[in-house]
Design a protein that fits this description.
With about 140 residues, the protein is α+β, with helices and mostly antiparallel strands. It has 4 helices and 7 strands. The protein starts with a helix and ends in a 16-residue tail after the last helix.
């Protein structure tokens, strides 16, 4: 795939995320996907596709009115696409979740083989991991830290 096709693939993924469509969102991931999230917190680490799929489904559940994403900048070189985006949604706790992200996505044969995520981990931990409705991300790690 060319640079423009890779960028469009990433924008299509953002659209699926914003629609809360877990099946479509996960369809972008290669079987051997590696998913890295920066930071030493419950969601931080290096994971495989199974974790990413479960994470996607669980996060959508704690935003019953949806978690909307907006791509702000996107650049591509070779097999890599860099995306800057924002999210906004109402968590089941009633708190607003609004985060900023930078993603590096490696694309091979039309699928994401690596997804590397940087975000405001303090805000993410505060809203996603500190509530009674929090997801127990630590319990289902597929790879030790």
């Amino acid at each position: 795939m060319g640079l423009e096709e890779n960028k469009q693939l990433v924008l299509d993924w953002v659209e699926a995320l914003s629609a809360g469509d877990a099946d479509r969102t996960c369809s972008f991931y290669a079987p051997a996907l590696r998913y890295f999230v920066v930071g030493d917190w419950a969601l931080g680490g290096d994971f495989g596709r199974d974790y990413m799929e479960q994470n996607c489904r669980d996060v959508f559940k704690v935003f019953p009115q949806g978690l909307k994403f907006k791509a702000e900048r996107i650049v591509a070189e070779g097999d890599w696409v860099c995306l800057e985006m924002r999210s906004h949604g109402q968590h089941v706790s009633g708190r607003t979740y609004a985060n900023h992200y930078s993603y590096w996505l490696e694309i091979k044969d039309g699928k994401f083989t690596q997804l590397r995520e940087w975000l405001d981990t303090l805000h993410g931990n505060d809203v996603l991991c500190s509530q009674t409705e929090a997801i127990d991300f630590e319990a289902r790690r597929d790879r030790p830290r």
